[in-house]
Amino acid sequence: MGAADTEIDFPAVMGSRERLWSVYGPAWGWPPATMTVEQDRDDLAHHERGIAAHESFLYGLFPADEAELLGCVYVDPPAKQSGADAEVSWWVVDRLVGSPTEAALDAFVPAWLARAWPLRAPRYVGRDLSWAEWLALPDLP
Fold first, then answer.
1. Which uninterrupted H or E stretch holds 92?
2. For residue 141, what pLDDT is reported?
3. Are 69 and 12 contacting, i.e. CB atoms less than 8 angstroms apart?
4. Over the Cα atoms of the chain, what is R_g?
5. Is residue 25 exposed (0-12), middle (13-18) or buried (19+ Cβ within 10 Å)?
6. Is the CB of residue 113 less than 8 Å from the CB of residue 122?
7. Which residues does 54 contact at the CB level (< 8 Å), separation at least 6?
8. Residue 102 and residue 106: Cα distance in Å, rounded?
């Protein structure tokens, strides 16, 4: 995902903004209620730079025709002193919450990371510890 994906990212994010804010707002300040398309493009460009530098990764979940964004997966370097070598989170659009698609993503992400990534101790923020617990951890220096 990158800046070129803004046209499909923006409606997915803003269409699920209240729930996404309840998850990511306290930690990331995202997505703000007044986020503009240009701010979303800037955010995606920031992710794109992290991906190019192999520092963080953002993946989109799409239907087969790739006509819309259904959710995202974030794999980031640790920001907190948690013993993790990556901090991982993901979301789906509101209409897929509680759906078989969300359940499949919930099963896929940890299995995919275990199988295909050289991680020893990924931390699934919002899953194996709450966002509040994560926020309470000391920041890495």
1. strand 86-92
2. 86
3. yes
4. 15
5. middle
6. yes
7. none
8. 6
Q: pLDDT digits over 92-120, tens only?
A: 999 999 999 999 999 999 999 999 999 99
Residue count of the chain: 141
Instruction: Locate all alpha helices (DSSP H) within 29-99, ordered by sequence.
Output: 37-52
Contact 73, 2 (CB under 8 A): no
Of 12, 131, 107, nearest in space to 61 by CA? 12
- Burial 106-128, CB ≥16 within 10 A → b, else e: eeebeeebeeeeeeeebbbbbee
Token duo for residue 35: 């986020």
pTM recorded for the entire structure: 0.93
Distance CA(23)–CA(26), nearest Å, equals: 7
User: What are 25-41's pLDDT values in tens digits?
Assistant: 988 999 999 999 999 99
CB atoms within 10 A of CB 103: 12
Average pLDDT over residues 41-59: 96
- The angle at the Cα of 41, spanning 49 to 139, to the nearest 5 degrees, equals 55
What are the φ and ψ backbone dihedral angles of 54, each rounded to 5 degrees?
Answer: 60, 35
